[in-house]
Write a structure and sequence with these properties.
Length: about 400
């Protein structure tokens, strides 16, 4: 079955309004033309994907992906606006089109509330890349705008704070009442905007690169008084540049990896002592994401090798180890803890990963694919779900 848009429009001119509203047209096309022409309902989904990919490929460029604080939702910043998806079940919860937001480089959620931080970028931006805007989905408008002298590299949200990273500085703002800058910190050159904040109310820990190569700064941002904060504590984490960081839900643990990408180190944020050293592999790799499970029993990591690694950090005896480690003189490599399980996604396709319910790991890739695997403590790992999330409709489509 093939579809000729020009012939279709000439034969059925009354459908031109649908063509002007792509979403409306595709819903009609999905529900009627495909099913009637194919004659079988089970062909509906695959035919829909082909039509969408063919007709909307120029607008499907994904600029970034990001989970929310509880990993139950994720954001998708695109050249055609942005979307927010629920993970379980996989469904689109919010979509802002290009005419409202322009192309978007970053989107950050605040848990599951109506506030979303947006940074312009991509091929068709409507807003400057040095500006953070807060979208209120209840009011259906942007309510806060923060402008900086440099492009925004990252934005993070807490219930009462906005954290913004530019290339050499971190800013912390009070909000929503009387939005104002609380304090700022100088950093080492930080083009990727590495900064993470714990969602915990007990340990309001913020972590970002320090001035020294391979070092991190840990600071408590619990205060709401301007220009008053605890002094940052410097942690020497790696010998080479920091490439990826993560903070657990409780704010008690920090994970870090360098640009070499072979080792992931786990630190106690209170004592600043290293708890574990985990080996991703022996070959250098670019790490895209590190994520703790909700109870901090496990950790997962993704890289450009196309493998999602799962490690145990509570019961480390579950991790794999070299059979040669008992020899005792072969060095640190054979003493390393390897992941207890892993699974693969498209290689060299950037993706983020996080833990879902019931011992599952979710991987979201920039090629638009959604992967869900379930693992067991003995190392078995099986795929439970796969989808193309860009083709998933919102709640009203069900």
């Amino acid at each position: 079955f093939t579809f000729d848009l020009v012939s279709f429009s000439k034969t059925f001119p009354r459908f031109w309004p649908f063509l002007l509203d792509f979403d409306g047209f595709l819903r009609y096309f999905d529900a009627s033309v495909v099913c009637l022409a194919a004659g079988r309902l089970n062909n509906h989904r695959s035919t829909r994907r082909t039509a969408r990919q063919w007709m909307m490929s120029s607008d499907r460029v994904i600029n970034s992906l990001r989970f929310n604080q509880d990993h139950g939702c994720f954001t998708c910043a695109m050249d055609d606006g942005f979307r927010i998806y629920n993970v379980e079940p996989l469904v689109e919860k919010l979509s802002l089109a290009h005419n409202e937001s322009g192309s978007v480089s970053q989107v950050e959620m605040l848990h599951r509330c109506n506030i979303v931080a947006v940074v312009g970028g991509g091929s068709k931006p409507k807003f400057a890349e040095n500006t953070v805007l807060l979208w209120d989905d209840k009011l259906k408008k942007f309510v806060i705008e923060l402008t900086f002298t440099q492009p925004v590299a990252a934005v993070r949200l807490r219930r009462n704070k906005i954290i913004v990273a530019v290339r050499s500085r971190i800013f912390v703002f009070r909000y929503p009442d009387n939005t104002s800058k609380l304090f700022e910190f100088d950093t080492r050159d930080n083009p990727r905007g590495l900064v993470e904040v714990s969602p915990s109310t007990d340990h309001q820990i913020m972590v970002f690169p320090a001035h020294k190569c391979g070092s991190l700064q840990i600071v408590d941002i619990a205060t709401t008084e301007e220009n008053i904060s605890s002094s940052p504590v410097t942690l020497t984490a790696h010998q080479s540049e920091i490439a990826c960081i993560a903070v657990n839900q409780q704010g008690t643990k920090l994970a870090s990896a360098s640009r070499k990408g072979t080792l992931i180190r786990i630190w106690d944020t209170q004592t600043k002592k290293m708890l574990h050293e985990l080996r991703r592999g022996s070959d250098p790799a670019t790490l895209y994401c590190i994520s703790f499970s909700h109870d901090s029993s496990y950790l997962c990591a993704s890289s450009d090798k196309g493998t999602i690694h799962i490690f145990a950090i509570k019961d480390t005896s579950l991790n794999k180890r070299s059979t040669l480690r008992k020899v005792g003189f072969l060095g640190q490599y054979v003493e390393s803890q390897w992941g207890l399980a892993n699974f693969t996604v498209p290689p060299e396709c950037a993706c983020i990963c996080a833990f879902g319910p019931n011992s599952s790991v979710i991987a979201i890739c920039v090629d638009g694919t959604f992967h869900k695997y379930v693992f067991t403590p003995d190392g078995n790992c099986n795929r439970e779900a796969y989808d193309v999330f860009l083709d998933v409709g919102d709640d009203t489509h069900f």
